[in-house]
Design a protein that fits this description.
The complex is a heterodimer of chains A (68) and B (156). By secondary structure, chain A is mainly alpha-helical. Chain A has one domain. Chain A has helices at 2-29, 38-62. In chain A, 16% of the residues are buried. With 156 residues, chain B is mainly alpha-helical. Chain B has one domain (30-154). Helices cover 72% and strands 0% of the residues of chain B. Chain B contains seven helices and no strands. Chain B has helices spanning 6-20, 32-44, 52-66, 71-96, 101-112, 119-126, 131-154. Chain B is elongated. Classes of the chains: A mainly alpha (68), B mainly alpha (156).
Chain lengths: 68, 156
């Protein structure tokens, strides 16, 4: 009974320590100053599409109207 | 069976945590891709900002409607903006690819080389009595020009 309690207590102490350790090790091996560029990539495409649509409209407006 | 040094056991993760903290700081972008991405965002915009190229297109359209810019000049500027927009569309697959940096740099330089130099910009800057109206356009154009110049330099 006593041994079982000690084992349970031991797991209770060691489990959070092991989790902390795992997180710290993960952090240590992560590349530094990681900047998530994926949202930026989406923005580039969206804004480029908007610009291209506006350019097409402006060109259509600038095109000379054909004589009847 | 007893834990004789519980303090030591608790101190270990604390020391490791403190050692890892400075490394987790978010600072300036570190990889060439991240560095270039920051400048491409200034030109093309991010998810929250519109970017200098789109600002330019809007200004050009508005200034032509007001008669500040002639139609031939408008078409000349829009052709430039179109190349910049196509450059913006070309960047995501290049930057997010797993190719080596040397290859990505070549592709980025190649994409920039398709953009003609903004010869019209100096002409607009010299235009008398219109500086206030043209300010938004020329500022955005300068941002695009400077951004592309930096990206080209970084990709060398």
């Amino acid at each position: 009974m006593g041994l079982a309690l000690v084992i349970i207590q031991g797991i209770g102490v060691l489990a959070p320590v092991a989790m902390d350790l795992a997180l710290v090790i993960k952090k240590l091996f992560e590349p530094h100053n990681q900047v998530d560029i994926m949202p930026m990539l989406i923005g580039w495409n969206t804004n480029a599409d908007e610009a291209l649509a506006l350019i097409a409209q402006a060109r259509a407006a600038a095109a000379p109207t054909p004589n009847p | 069976m007893k834990f004789r040094k519980p303090a030591g056991l608790l101190a270990l993760p604390l020391i490791l945590f403190l050692a890892a903290c400075p490394r987790a700081d978010i600072g300036p972008p570190a990889t060439p891709e991240q560095h270039i991405a920051a400048y491409v965002s200034a030109v093309c915009g991010s998810e929250t900002t519109k970017g200098a190229n789109l600002d330019m297109v809007r200004s050009v359209v508005g200034l032509t409607a007001l008669g500040v810019i002639s139609q031939p000049t408008e078409l000349e500027i829009l052709a430039y903006n179109e190349r910049v927009a196509l450059f913006c569309k070309a960047m995501p697959p290049i930057i997010s690819s797993t190719s080596p940096w040397a290859l990505k740099a070549l592709q980025i330089s190649g994409a920039i080389n398709t953009i003609p130099p903004p010869g019209w910009l100096d002409r607009l800057l010299k235009q008398p009595n219109a500086s206030a109206q043209l300010a938004a356009l020329t500022t955005a154009a300068e941002t695009v020009r400077a951004g592309l110049k930096i990206i080209a330099r970084e990709a060398r």
